[in-house]
Design goal:
This protein is of the alpha+beta class and about 375 residues long. It contains 12 helices and 14 strands. The radius of gyration is 19 Å and the shape is globular.
Length: about 375
């Protein structure tokens, strides 16, 4: 039975709707949404499928879902907004804003290295308890004490979870607000973008359950098995310390949703991602709300890190807080596109050259190290439609 796709789609972008339907028919999609803004106008805003594995709850216009690392791009937008307002100097030492960070030889480490995954702080060495994942002060204190795993600036490695506390604590020290509150008050609220870091219980009824990735079969690549061959490595500690972060089903609990983990537990709609990035794709303003200046947006497209990643056993390419296009992980054909994917498949990005803001959210996780094939099909259909 063909999936029923709901929402709106400009006739010019019918190919996107077709690719979206194909994701259900051929690529195992359960519930998902896709949204595209072109120069501030919504041209695609569609959704289909179910919000749970049992397929008892339909995916609706306002279904929220956890987007894992797609959250990093939203956290980076908050930092860039502060830089734009003159409140954050990206080249200043982190310790200027967060004095305790100066420990363990980090007194001169600049904010730039936090945003570009060059700080050498992808993990905490000392064993942490399970609850540390949900305790902001425990995590920021541990990171302030931590000696870098490599000389900051000499190489890069994906700060999979620590990125959120590192950048988030700088935001908190400058504004007096946690990143989730700052996002709500300054950006998402005024824009009307339905994106949350720290989700209120009142939204649980409209939040989709994440359907976990099945374990890799024999002969299939298994990143975690590789990582755990050396449990004392930065890569193992990044994912396993605090322990429990990878626990099956954790992502669907109230504890996870309520916490602020700005590297990985944002909850939003595809529409909200298209709005946030759609504003940046057209000079920083959408519906009378200015998110950022053109000059600051230009900073989002400047490569900072590229090549072999110390953590991920693949090549990665980053600007200041955003992932950029690279072979096997293209954000469309234009080189200045920037955004962030999330584990399992979600994606948000801006293409300032084509003035496109793109958002894709889903609940069935699939194995992809960079851009998920389901998102890639949608992206290709967008540019074919222009």
């Amino acid at each position: 039975m063909a999936v029923k796709i709901e929402g709106t789609c400009d006739p010019k972008f019918t190919r996107v709707k077709d690719a979206f339907a194909e994701n259900f028919e051929k690529r195992g999609e359960v519930g998902a949404a896709a949204a595209v803004m072109l120069d501030g106008k919504s041209v695609v805003d569609i959704w289909a499928g179910h919000a749970d594995q049992a397929k008892t709850r339909p995916w609706t216009r306002d279904t929220l879902v956890n987007v894992y690392s797609t959250t990093k791009g939203v956290t980076a937008i908050c930092a860039h907004r502060l830089a734009d307002k003159g409140l954050l100097d990206i080249d200043a030492p982190v310790a200027k804003y967060w004095p305790e960070f100066a420990q363990a030889g980090k007194d001169k480490l600049p904010v730039r290295f936090l945003l570009s995954h060059r700080a050498g702080l992808p993990a905490v060495r000392k064993p942490l308890d399970d609850d540390a994942l949900f305790n902001w002060n425990k995590m920021t204190t541990a990171l302030a004490e931590q000696e870098p795993w490599w000389e900051p600036g000499t190489k890069h490695g994906y700060h999979a979870i620590t990125f959120g506390w590192l950048v988030g604590e700088v935001i908190r020290r400058i504004t007096g607000k946690t990143p989730g509150v700052y996002l709500r008050d300054e950006i998402a609220g005024p824009l009307g973008a339905d994106f949350h870091i720290g989700l209120d219980a009142k939204h649980d009824a409209r939040t989709a359950d994440i359907i976990a990735l099945p374990p890799p079969g024999p002969g299939e690549p298994n990143l975690f098995a590789e990582v755990m061959k050396n449990p004392e490595s930065a890569a193992a500690k990044a994912f396993m310390n605090p322990p429990g972060g990878m626990r099956p089903g954790l992502v669907n609990t109230r504890q996870w949703r309520a916490a602020e983990i700005p590297a990985g537990n944002g909850h939003g709609t595809a529409r909200s991602l298209a709005q946030l990035y759609g504003a940046l794709a057209r000079g920083g303003e959408l519906n009378g709300v200015r998110v950022m200046s053109k000059a600051q947006i230009a900073q989002c497209s400047i490569e900072q890190s590229s090549g072999p990643d110390e953590l991920l056993i693949i090549n990665t390419r980053f600007s200041l807080g955003f992932m950029m296009s690279q072979p096997g992980g293209e954000l469309g054909p234009n080189p200045k596109s920037f955004g962030h994917p999330g584990a399992g498949g979600s994606l948000g990005y801006a293409d300032p050259e084509a003035k496109i803001g793109f958002g894709y959210t889903m609940n069935k996780m699939q194995a992809s190290l960079l851009i998920d094939p389901r998102a890639t099909w949608l992206i290709e259909a967008v540019y074919e439609s222009l």
